[in-house]
């Protein structure tokens, strides 16, 4: 959906977004309507056991999820709006004898009942229907145009993490139905990373059909690795190389033959762009740590330990993090070389949840209307607090070298630096903007706790005009300095009637002013080495 924003108007973009939004509205209440409790989903552990609902609990579940006209009207839509996703009775013939992914219920997961209510035949097919709807829009808008926009969007999501810088502006080339971007980046002296990003095509038909042109893509990968290896050896300090095959698409699995024998000192790692973004958003998720993990896996395989993971490199990374950067658990003392180690597929959920909590990716409303996608301002901090968790940064503003962030407090408070009226360096502007963001987050938290203070009900913004006092500008006058931020903070503190907000030094100075002295007395050293203040007294 983010990639579709780059498509020209008039190609059905609004209709596609509206259809996807309607299907997502049906997706949210489906498990709750069916009577499935959160604890009945099943939790995996090291032993491989999965807790499933008992037979008595299964009998109480309502397997059919229905939506009548009244319920749909409360959600802002009608049965006629969902007609493109509603299957007709004559289309049901022979549907159950087909394989999943090729039935009519994958494109039309809704069924109109005799009582006029909509029935969700398969809640899981709603995601497939959304993918097929986006693929149809991509074909209407131009598959090649949409492929390149999707590939750029996927690389930007990886670039937002700490994995490594992505070649977002690298030229794209077409190989069959695939769009490819390649680049070679040196991350350390002697260590080179080759990015091979691939965007799948949007051919109509079965979503489970194998990709076409896989052999041509494999030949292209083999040729790209040779060129990357040759360019790295020209530098003279080549030691190691790694090729990251990063894929993205509309949900269809991509498979191709391997590139064959790799050059000496060269590794290969392939996964989806979303998996690489999840790895980069976790702790120990940079490219050096990922390289260390791949090297450790190769060493363990050489010693006879076989690791089986069905969910790709993200499954291996989750296992490595859970076991304290080791591939063999410390308590597995009976393992011998040659014993297979099967990794649980459910471990990827913990890595994805941790990545989302650290990044905090979300959309916040703007004061001028619309939404803007933001990320958490501080993903890693040694002193976490409630104020830092509510500060977010606009990704679009950062990419255009602008400072704009928001404090999420019901109605977001947007704080941005007015570049046209500011005269300061980027470093100084960031320091001031970051300090104001932190101060605003703490102040808003205080206002929320105060009964007499009322925050705005709609999003609002604060513009900063930063003028760096150096060069020919001179120092601001004394009255302007005293009427700045310090006086504003003091006035707000008095308005809130919260004397505990003042610092300890301010309270001490105020007490001394009331007693008639403004400077503290000097401490005198006594005869026996201890200090005393004021009049000498015996104990």
In short:
The chain is of the alpha/beta class and 539 residues long.
Strand content: 15-25%
Average residue pLDDT: 78
pLDDT < 50 runs, ≥5 residues = 35-53, 471-475, 492-502, 524-539
Oligomer: single chain
SS class = alpha/beta
**How many domains is the backbone divided into?**
4
Could you give a short account of the major beta sheet?
Answer: 6 strands, mixed
Total count of strands: 19
Radius of gyration: 30 Å
Q: Which descriptor suits the 3D outline?
A: globular
Head-to-tail CA distance between termini:
78 Å
Biggest sheet strand order reads 12-13-14-15-16-17
Q: Give the helix proportion (percent range).
A: 25-40%
Number of helices: 17
Kindly describe this structure.
- By secondary structure, the chain is α/β, with parallel strands linked by helices.
- The protein has 4 domains: 3-137, no CATH class; 142-353, no CATH class; 360-468, no CATH class; 473-539, no CATH class.
- It has helices spanning 13-27, 30-33, 55-60, 69-74, 104-107, 125-141, 143-159, 214-234, 273-281, 287-302, 312-322, 348-359, 395-399, 426-449, 478-482, 485-496, 504-515, and strands spanning 65-67, 86-87, 110-112, 118-120, 173-175, 178-188, 191-199, 240-248, 266-272, 306-308, 340-342, 362-365, 371-376, 391-394, 404-407, 413-417, 460-464, 524-525, 531-532.
- It has a 6-stranded mixed sheet. Strands 5-6-7-8-9 form a 5-stranded mixed sheet. Strands 1-4-3-2 form a 4-stranded mixed sheet.
- Helix 1 (13-27) packs antiparallel against helix 6 and helix 6 crosses helix 7 (143-159).
- The termini are far apart.
- Residues 35-53, 471-475, 492-502 and 524-539 have low confidence and may be disordered.
């Amino acid at each position: 959906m983010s990639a579709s924003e780059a498509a020209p108007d008039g190609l059905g973009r609004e209709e596609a977004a509206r259809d996807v939004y309607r299907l997502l509205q049906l997706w949210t209440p489906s498990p709750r309507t069916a009577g499935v409790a959160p604890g009945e989903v099943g939790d995996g552990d090291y032993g491989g056991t999965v807790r499933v609902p008992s037979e008595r609990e299964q009998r109480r579940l309502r397997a059919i999820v229905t939506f009548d006209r009244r319920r749909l009207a409360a959600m802002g839509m009608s049965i006629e709006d969902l007609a493109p996703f509603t299957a007709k009775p004559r289309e049901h013939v022979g549907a159950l004898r087909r394989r999943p992914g090729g039935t009519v219920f994958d494109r039309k997961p809704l069924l109109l009942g005799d009582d006029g209510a909509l029935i969700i035949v398969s809640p899981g097919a709603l995601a497939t229907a959304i993918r097929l709807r986006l693929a149809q829009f991509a074909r209407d808008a131009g598959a090649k145009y949409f492929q390149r926009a999707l590939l750029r969007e996927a690389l930007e999501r990886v670039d937002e993490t700490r994995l490594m810088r992505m070649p977002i502006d690298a030229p794209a080339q077409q190989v069959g139905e695939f769009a490819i971007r390649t680049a070679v980046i040196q991350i350390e002296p002697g260590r080179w990373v080759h990015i091979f990003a691939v965007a799948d095509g949007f051919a109509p038909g079965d979503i489970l059909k194998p990709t076409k042109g896989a052999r041509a893509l494999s030949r292209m990968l083999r040729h790209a690795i040779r060129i990357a290896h040759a360019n790295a050896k020209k530098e003279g300090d080549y030691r190691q190389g790694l090729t990251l095959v990063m894929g993205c698409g509309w949900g269809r699995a991509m498979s191709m033959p391997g590139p064959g024998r790799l050059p000496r000192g060269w590794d290969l790692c392939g996964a989806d762009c979303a998996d690489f973004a999840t790895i980069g958003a976790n702790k120990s998720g940079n490219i050096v740590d990922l390289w260390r993990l791949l090297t450790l896996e190769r060493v363990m395989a050489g010693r006879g330990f076989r690791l089986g993971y069905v969910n790709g490199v993200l499954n291996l990374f989750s296992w490595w993090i859970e076991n304290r950067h080791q591939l063999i658990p410390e308590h597995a003392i009976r393992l011998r070389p040659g014993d297979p180690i099967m990794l649980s597929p459910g471990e990827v959920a913990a890595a994805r949840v941790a990545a989302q909590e650290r990044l905090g990716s979300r959309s916040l409303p703007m004061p001028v209307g619309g939404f803007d996608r933001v990320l958490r301002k501080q993903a890693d901090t040694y002193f976490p607090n409630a104020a830092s968790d509510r500060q977010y940064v606009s990704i679009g503003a950062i990419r255009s070298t602008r400072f704009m962030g928001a404090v999420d407090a019901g109605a977001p408070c947007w704080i941005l630096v007015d570049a046209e009226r500011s005269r300061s360096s980027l470093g100084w502007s960031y320091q001031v903007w970051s300090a104001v963001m932190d101060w605003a987050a703490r102040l808003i938290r205080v206002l929320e706790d105060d009964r007499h203070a009322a925050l705005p009900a709609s999003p609002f913004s604060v513009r900063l005009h930063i003028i760096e006092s150096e060069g020919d500008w001179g120092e601001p006058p004394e009255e302007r300095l005293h009427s700045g931020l310090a006086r504003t903070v003091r006035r707000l503190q008095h308005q809130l009637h919260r004397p505990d907000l003042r610092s300890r030094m301010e309270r001490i100075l105020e007490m001394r002013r009331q007693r008639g002295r403004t400077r503290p007395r000097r401490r005198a050293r006594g005869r026996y080495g201890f200090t005393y203040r004021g009049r000498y007294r015996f104990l």
